[in-house]
Amino acid sequence: MNYQIAIVGHGNYPDGVVSALKLLAGSTANLTAFNLNEETTHEKFTQDVSQFLDQNDHVIVFADMTGGAPHQITARLILEKKRPYQYIISSAPVSLILDLYAQCQMGLDDSTIDQTLKDSLSQSKSLIQLMPLHDPVIDSLTEKIAAEDDDEGGI
């Protein structure tokens, strides 16, 4: 089954994600952005997202922030509609959105969608990295190399 993908968020974040996916995936088929910005009222945003959900039984929505207005509105609509194949994922990095977008383009199986989403979320979490500003081992090696260069009259 092909799932529709929607990006909801503050400002023009959704349009930015769509732009990134077009660059990375080469396509934006089955992808819709809903910006909640200074030009869009909450009522209009709610109406647009509700219409999208009514027109598509199989949907994965990515929200920019857990608990933000776009997330709250969309989650409420999904819960109210009680459709079994409509999901919302919040605070998702572009790598997760790209992964699931690619899988959606190939078609997802309704019987395994829950596990597919869990697996993709787990994999995405493992990719989030903090690079240390200072690593004691690297700092020690750097100091040793610098001292050797000084001893040899290096630069």
Give a structural overview:
This protein is α/β, with parallel strands linked by helices and 155 residues long. It has a single domain (4-151), classed as Phosphotransferase system, mannose-type IIA component (Rossmann fold), CATH 3.40.50. The chain is 54% helix and 15% strand. The chain contains six helices and four strands; from the N terminus they run E-H-E-H-E-H-E-H-H-H. It has a four-stranded parallel β-sheet, with helices on both faces. Helix 1 (13-25) links the parallel strand 1 (4-10) and strand 2. The chain is elongated and about 75 Å long. The mean pLDDT is 90.
Q: What's the overall average pLDDT, rounded?
A: 90
Order of helices and strands: EHEHEHEHHH
- What does the main sheet amount to? 4 strands, parallel
Strand order of the largest sheet: 2-1-3-4
Domain PTS EIIA type-4: 2-128
GO biological process, one term: phosphoenolpyruvate-dependent sugar phosphotransferase system
GO molecular function: transferase activity
Keywords: Transferase
What labels describe this entry?
single chain, 155 residues, Rossmann fold, 4-stranded parallel beta sheet, 6 helices, 54% helix, 15% strand, elongated
Brief digest:
The protein has 155 residues and is α/β, with parallel strands linked by helices. It has helices spanning 13-25, 42-55, 69-81, 94-106, 113-127, 136-151, and strands at residues 4-10, 31-36, 59-63, 86-90.
